[in-house]
Amino acid sequence: MPLTVIKFSSEDCGTCHRMSHYDSLVSEELGCLFVNVMLQDTDTYRKYRKILLCQYPNKEGMGWPTYLIVENPDSDFSILGELKGGMSKGDFRNRLSKLLGNYNNK
């Protein structure tokens, strides 16, 4: 089963919006499923909230956006890595690829 990249973002975050032009495409090109969780979308947020709170119990230290690389997000999930904050398409691809490489080499 492919890994899932879950993006936690907000409708009023300019950086989140800019990255939305390439983050899902890059994630899918690297073989991951992609889920966009807008904090304003209460149904989707509620579904993935437990994953976010596992990494950030009180939401301190989150970046905007925060991407969590997750195995089995719909059951007994494992968080394998994260990316947070704004970055260019090339940086996003390189950092995500490195995280996936670390996982695949285990």
Structure explained in plain terms:
By secondary structure, this protein is of the alpha+beta class. It has a single domain, classed as Glutaredoxin, CATH 3.40.30.10. Helix content is 41%, strand content 24%. It has four helices and four strands, in the order E-H-H-E-H-E-E-H. The two termini are 16 Å apart.
What attributes characterize this protein structure?
single chain; 106 residues; alpha+beta; 4 strands; 24% strand; globular
Task: Offer a quick outline of the entry.
This protein is α+β, with helices and mostly antiparallel strands and 106 residues long. The protein has four helices and four strands. A hairpin with a 6-residue loop joins strand 3 and strand 4 (78-84).
Sequence-ordered SSE layout with sheet pairings:
Layout: E1 4-9, H1 14-19, H2 23-29, E2 33-38, H3 42-55, E3 66-71, E4 78-84, H4 89-104
Parallel strand pairs: 1-2
Antiparallel strand pairs: 1-3, 3-4
